[in-house]
Amino acid sequence: MNLPLQIDFPEGLPVSARRHEIEQAMREHQVIIVCGETGSGKTTQLPKIALALGRGARREGQRASLIGHTQPRRIAASSVAKRIAEELRTPLGEVVGYKVRFQDRLQASAQVKLMTDGILLAETQRDPLLRAYDTLIIDEAHERSLNIDFLLGYLRQLLPRRPDLKLVITSATIDADRFARHFASERGPAPVIMVSGRTYPVEQRYRPYEESREYGLNHAVADAVDELWQGAAGGDILVFLPGEREIRDLADHLRGHLSHTPLGRACEILPLFSRLSQSDQERVFEASNGRRIVLATNVAETSLTVPGIRYVIDVGTARVKRYSLRSKVEQLQVEPISQAAAQQRAGRCGRVAHGVCIRLYEEADFLKRARFTDPEILRSSLASVILRMKSLGLGLVEAFPFIDAPSSRAITDGHQLLTELGAVDEDQQLTPLGRELARLPLDPRIGRMILDARNRGALDEVLVIASALSVQDVRDRPLEAQTQADQQHAKFKDDRSEFSGYLTLWRWLQDVRGGHGQTHQLSNRQYEQLLKANYIHVRRVREWRDVHSQLLTVVTEQGWKLNTTAASYEQIHLSMLSGLLGNIGCKVDDEEVYLGARGIKFHRHPGAHLRKKPGRWLVAAELVETTRLYGRGLAAIDPTWLEQTGAHLLKKQWLDPHFDVKSGEVLAFERATLYGLVVYSGRRRPYAAVDPAGAREIFIREALVAGAWPSKLPFVQANQVTLRKVQELEHKSRRQDVLVDEELIFAYYDAQIPEQVLNARDLEAWWRGAAKDQPKLLHMSREDLMRHEAASVTAQAYPRVLRLGGVDCATEYLHDPGDGRDGLTVTVPLFVLNQVSEERCEWLVPGMLKDKVQALLKSLPQKPRARLVPLPESATRLAQELAQEDVFGQGSLTDALLQRVRADTGLDVKRADFKLDMVPPHLFMNLRVVDEHGRQLGMGRNLGALRADWGHQARGAFQALAQLKTPSAASTRPEPAATAPAPAAAVKPSSGPTTGASPAPGPYTEWRFGELPELMEIRKGGQTLVGFPALVDQGTAVLIEVFDEPEVAQHHHRSGLRRLFALQMKDALKHLEKNIPDLQKMAVAYMPLGGQEELRQQIIELALERAFLLEPWPTDAATFQQRLEEGRGRLSLIAQEVARLCAQVMLEFTNASKKIRDTKGHPEAAADCAQQLQRLVGKHFVRETPWTQMQHLVRYLKAIVMRLDKCRADPARDRQRMSEVKAQEQRYWRLVAERRGASDERMLEFRWLLEELRVSLFAQELRTPQPVSVKRLDKAWAQLN
């Protein structure tokens, strides 16, 4: 038999004084709001008032109803239930009980049910009208958690359907007016009852501090403790701190700070936070006779009454969870608390005696803070709220009666997450998967993992992982035993995945308990001791199993079966990935940072339970921002998995659609991104599947119009031939308006090819069928491709071959400014390169002559150019004159044009007035040199440069062609042929009067080869080449070789003739070598340059040339013998004359060298003279210096000595004149370098004029053979160019 309850109301509590007023309001109104200071007794007395009114009682014929009383935290619900049960003097659970997660202390006879707001919210799914309750008390409503706000909106809609339901909203720091308006009825706003007063007053003290390196938060708290306990004052202290780390740091600091006093050493320092173990939490609420300091987070702000607390120290900050709508991650930042939170903290004292609250910040700072804490709904993800509302049919989120409506951006973000999970469709309606997801009492992400695991055969493993992610990590890591804990936890780590680590840990927890097969099962005590020895938190293991049991119950209710075979790594992580697609990351190069979804970057959490670093791609169970953004619960993934789980989220792009010749269709490179991360790129995909019309257009444009398709269909090949012919006309005429543009060609094909033809296969199949009736289908005529006729483009104006060096060379025309082959390109065989006439190259072809003439006229100075305007008409007239058969190609084009310009203008126009650098490059012939196999060796518009690079090889190829190179001759030549001999070519005497019979190649020691012709004709393939035979010196004999250049032939022939004469006079030469006058003296002076034998040989060679090689040279045996007899008698005298001249040169060379060495004060002049001396007297100066200039060497050397003597008297004049000479010399040697050392008579003449200029400027006393000045050299230079 149940005895009636004895309900007493403590008279000292302010709520007791207003009890009757509260009872009256509850009878008359469905909703009342009770506000009162912290410590006024609201939490414990309001349920008793409801009991006194008969609420929560059983009535016959009706179901039992409860008084529901919600608290924001589990620890608060359990502690309040215990306090109310003690005041009612009933066992816990009989009348007053509590139900929190994992604990249910509620009997069938209970009338008051304490619970968290989350428990009440979960009951709305099973009991939408909350029939189990007749009274609901929502305590600490000021916290405005997501659950509280949703409950308040839900109750607002529920109350009209439950008129018997009474609702009490209470808090110490609530915005009463706002809540009253929220629950307004027809009678007006809900009544508000203000309960003023408290048991004991609380004094507020402000102690701001300035943080520095030496003084910080810990020091400020220690000073506040000293202030509160000064004078041996007693009472416990509650210190509010932002987080667990600050609690640990302050605990260590206070222990050291208080250890210096006896009372301080006896002080007990206790932590209090939500993740604290049950035993440690119970220690806080146990009564104690000694002094205590409780270090707590904001978990102790509301509902909790810690016994014995007399003082509060408030640091003014808390760690607040905020969800970033931009980065989609939760941030745990330390922020200043609101005024309401500060008042709640101050209200924790003053319950046992007069209280003191020390705030470690300024009062002005307190007054500037927000009145109330931001509602959680404004700083959280709304995905779970939206999902629950849709499953309960509560309508749109925008229309739901929240006290503070969330922003449209937050609502959109919630819908995006549900879309990511596949819970809603494009119309934001629940999908079948979404309805299943709503039935699972879990975070939507974890629920999505479980649903996917059901389909993949990984349900057993994923239930373990999902339950592990729903509770705190069971691995304990005490501050004082971190190393030992890490060692024990190492066996649970995995190489790639923390999820796999959870499975390893779960199996270990089952295996070590025993009871399987023959193993002995451990008792609970033994099991707990084993867990503690391995630093495994016992209570958290129990919570993990409870959550797993709940999930297993849900799975069983749904009829899902667990997999009996172990799931693979891929199956497990594909399931996990389905709920964590927004938490993927890809490593950025070599940095220790991962690029996440939507451009965020996060780091691997330092406490990750992995043996190795994760791979390039990973997924994180959560992203949390503290000091930086960290990923927790990491696992390596394969990026290809994202194509399976995130197929509905992939954003695909098709880049660079193009026609692929091999496959015959239009392909594109597919690129897929997931929230901005590139999942794959560069995959070849048929573009027709994406954009058929676009694929068809690209196929026509690239395959047919551009000619990229190498098809053997008749129309394709015919159209390409016709197109090339028209393009050739365009290149020749250098006009871009001959060929129709690509758009017209595309329109031609587009109009005739059916729309369903998208690739080469389709086109071939269609054309072969249609061509049976229309054989010329898709054949384009020349008229279809031309805008107008190019009448000026004739075979005569633009020939296909051009005769250069006696050989017909193929021509090629290109109109592409900037290209190296722009203009006219002539392919020249290597063997004919040295015979190509540079003057002929100037003329190009008749069709390009007008443009070149106009360009040359345009380069003239203004005065003569003005007399030729309009230039186009003058260029046309002059081009017609120059194109006459007897004029075109004869001599130099520049000279021919210069002659006509002088006649037309009446001005003395110089050749140098034509500025060739102003003429466009395409108006110079481009020569392409090829070998006998057609391979390109070189190409350019500078014939001299090509000859310098390939002249030796060209000579060898020519000689091989002439079949005059024997194996022995080829082996003794210093420059062997670069190419193999050409096919047989007939060699015959030239038809001219100077040709003779073809002699044998030799070797010869005397003239036994008949007449040596001046030139020879060589036929090859119907073409005729001209060769120049010459004697080649072989030391002990001479050979006959044919050369392709007359200058080279003459050079070799001189040496060969000299050797042949020397062979006839061996005895005379031996006597002459021994009797050269003053040879030893000359040899001493010659030592810096070479030896005596080298000088002797040069003197003998020069004497032979002066005696026997006077022009004309012998051409047959008779003239050779005659010349031999004539020179035999004068050879000795000539040798003495040459030796005497060389002796004078060496004497002056010695004097000039000595003078240069002795000139120390004028280094520039000395260096210039040294360079001049080196050029004049080299190692082979006797052989290389022409005889006419040899006689002037003595004067040039004397001029050096005289210059250096004058330089001492007037160095400024010397520098000025040296600058004049340098300007002339620099341009000469620059031209020599451009011509690769090749020179002609005019260049040699200019070179010796430079020496005469030096004599004229520096040693006028020595006189010059002719007047020389800078101006005269400028004129000579103009003629040279």
* Category by helix and strand content: alpha/beta
Strand order of the largest sheet: 4-3-5-2-6-7-1-8
For the largest beta-sheet, the strand count, sense and barrel status come to: 8 strands, mixed
Unreliable sequence segments: 964-997
Tell me how many strands there are: 33
Structure, explained:
The protein has 1281 residues and is of the alpha/beta class. It is built from 49 helices and 33 strands. The strands form six sheets. Strands 4-3-5-2-6-7-1-8 form an eight-stranded mixed β-sheet, sandwiched between helices. Strands 9-16-13-10-12-11 form a six-stranded parallel β-sheet, with helices on both faces. A five-stranded mixed beta barrel has the order 17-18-19-21-20. The longest helix has 28 residues, at 1131-1158.
How is the topology of this model organized?
Elements (H helix, E strand, L loop, with lengths): L13 H4 L1 H10 L2 E6 L5 H11 L13 E6 L2 H15 L7 E5 L2 E3 L6 E5 H10 L6 E6 L7 H13 L7 E6 L4 H7 L9 E4 L6 E5 L10 H12 L7 E5 L3 H15 L3 H4 L2 E5 L5 H8 L6 E5 L12 E6 L2 E7 L6 E7 L2 H8 L8 E5 L3 H6 L14 H10 L15 H14 L10 H7 L5 H13 L2 H12 L11 H8 L8 H16 L10 H10 L4 H20 L11 H10 L5 E4 L6 E3 L4 E4 L12 E9 L3 E8 L5 H4 L5 E10 L4 E10 L2 E10 L5 H14 L8 H20 L8 H11 L7 H11 L11 H4 L15 E4 L2 E8 L8 E7 L8 H6 L2 H13 L3 H5 L4 H12 L10 H13 L20 E5 L5 E5 L2 H20 L4 H6 L13 E4 L26 E5 L2 E11 L4 E6 L2 H19 L1 H9 L4 H8 L5 H17 L8 H12 L2 H28 L4 H14 L4 H4 L2 H4 L2 H17 L1 H24 ...
Parallel strand pairs: 1-7, 1-8, 2-5, 2-6, 3-5, 6-7, 9-16, 10-12, 10-13, 11-12, 13-16, 15-20, 19-21, 27-28
Antiparallel strand pairs: 3-4, 14-15, 17-18, 17-20, 18-19, 20-21, 22-23, 23-24, 25-26, 26-27, 28-29, 30-31, 31-32, 32-33
Helix pairs in contact: 3-4, 5-6, 8-9, 14-15, 14-16, 16-17, 17-18, 17-23, 18-20, 18-22, 25-27, 31-33, 37-40, 39-42, 40-42, 42-43, 42-46, 43-46, 46-47, 46-48, 47-48, 48-49
